[in-house]
Each structure stands twice: as structure tokens, then as C-alpha cells.
Amino acid sequence: CHTFLADFYYGHDDAVFSEGNYLADMKARWGNVMGAAHWMYDRGDLSLKTTAYVTAYRNRFSLEMEDMFFRLPSGITDYGLKSDVVWNCWNAGVEAAWHDIRPQSLEHEGDFNVTDGNTPPMRSLEASVYGNYTCPLADNLSLLGGVRGSLFRKGHTAYWALDPSVRLLYDNHTLQFSATYALRHQYLFQTGFSDSGLPTEFWISASEDFKPQYAHEIIASGSSYLFNRRFRVSVDVFYRRLYHQLGYKGSLFDYLNTVYDIHGSLMHGKGENYGFSLMLNKCSGPLTGWLSYTYT
User: Fold this and answer.
1) Residue 256 has pLDDT above 70, yes or no
2) Which residue among 7, 116, 147, 267 is the one 20 to 30 A from 131 at the CA level?
């Protein structure tokens, strides 16, 4: 059985803000466009899916303050191809993507910034291959293991990594429990002055100046149906240790009277991410819904 699908999306938002304390007016325009074509083949014990796609995100932020004006344009465009195959207990695939990134740049008029704030574009190629196997251990108990190999290249700089993962899963259709460990690498980063409450974050890629980020993660999850499957309760606990993290320490008004340098606005370090979530789900009856709480 062959299936062909195509989808497309376009959307953008516009916002205008007044900052009375600084006698400033801010404008923001951001949006996404995406197109993809899919081919799927299903033969019962064998299924294939191949997708070719293009995605793009653009951000146009500007601020006007008395006789000063500046813009902070940024964006990212991806061209990608990925293919996935599932055969019995095996799952494998390949992915490749070309990233064309414009990090946040500064275009200014009438302020005291004397430097050229144009940040050069970042163009890079990312490719990966992965394989996973599900091994039944006993009734309702299985072990899922896999590895993902990735290669990232930007100019003359190249990085590669092997990311293993293992998951123990118990599922008797009423009670489910899983424990997972995984190593993850990431070559694209999103940063910016998030404390402004505006969508002003921008993308940058791994390079000779920014090493790939990676994380060790441990996740434990459990869920159970209650009262003849009328309710379902679930719990998730996680911990991640993060390396080569980037934090943006600048603010909107640093550009008015300082030298713009993207490297000087970024902090490098390690990080931790941990927390838990609880959810109670009412599954049947005239009224259904859920109640949840998350700490992270």
C-alpha cells in the first residue's frame, strides 16, 4: 500500500509595544513557513516513510527611541530529507538537513554604537543514521536499545557523535512503567533576551566558537488505570546533566550605547534540569478531562 501526502503551513504575528519608562516604541514581526512531501509504504511487517521538507522562521524586531532606531533581524531556513523503516522489532533511519541561519544582527541609526553589527550567516550540514531494536524479555516486559550516529559540518569545522539509549518497559495494558537513559547531542542552539517577554530569541549553530551541546538524561515514568479504567494517573520524574550550554546576558537597551558583539553577550557553562509531573485523567463519562501539576 503506497500513500502520498503533501502539507503546507504559513503564519505570522505582528505586535506593537510601548515602553513608557524609556519613551520607546517596540515592534515585532515573526512567523513560520513550512512545506513537506511524504511517501509511505506499508506491507504489514514492513513499513517505510520518506519525507522531503523545507522550513523557515523569520524574526523582525525593532525599537524606536527619540532620535534613535535599530532593528534586530534573525532567521533560520532548513532543507531536509529523512527516511524511516520499521521491520518487526527493528527501527532504523537516516536524516540529512542543510541549515541556513542568520543570527541576530544589528541595524541602527542615530545611536552611539560605532561598530558594524552585521553577524555573518551560518551555513551547515547535519546528517545522522540511527537504529533501534526491541527485545522481549518476558510477558509484558521488553528492553529497547538503540544508537544514533551524527555528523555536523560548518565550513572547515566538523563534529561527530554516537548517542546510545536504553529503555526498560513494562506494560500489561493496565499498569505501565519505564526507565530510560540516553545521551543526546545538539548542534543548533536557541538563545536571546528571553526575559523581555517577546519572541526575540534567535538561532546559532555549532562552530569553532560554539561546541555542540550534549546531555545525559535519566527518565522514570509510570501510569495506571483506576476504577475500571475510568481514571488514569501518571507520574514522570527526570534528570538531565547539560554541557556546553549558552546563556544570553544582554538586554534590549545594550545596543543603544555599546559595541555590539554576539560573542561578548553569551555565557558558556554547564547546567542541570530536573523535575517531575503528575497527571490525573478522567477517561469516560459525560465529563472528561485532566488535572496536572509540573515542577521543573
Assistant:
1) no
2) 7
CA dist 93 and 98 (Å) reads 17
Quote the pTM value.
0.84
Q: For position 132, what pLDDT does the model report? A: 96
> How many Cβ atoms are within 10 Å of 204's Cβ, its own excluded?
23
Cα–Cα distances in Å, from 295 out to 110, 236, 238?
Answer: 45, 10, 11
- The answer for residues whose C-beta is within 8 angstroms of residue 228's C-beta and 6 or more apart is none
- 216, 244, 246, 219: which is closest to 234 by C-alpha? 219
| Best CA proximity match to 142, nearest among 169, 164, 167, 165 | 169
DSSP bridge partners of 169: 142, 178
The three cell numbers of residue 245 are 550550554
What pLDDT shows up at residue 24? 76
All three cell numbers of 72, joined, read 534586530
Q: pLDDT tens digits, residue range 107-128?
A: 777 666 666 666 788 999 999 9
Average pLDDT estimate for 136-149: 95
Q: At 41, list the grid cell.
A: 509504504
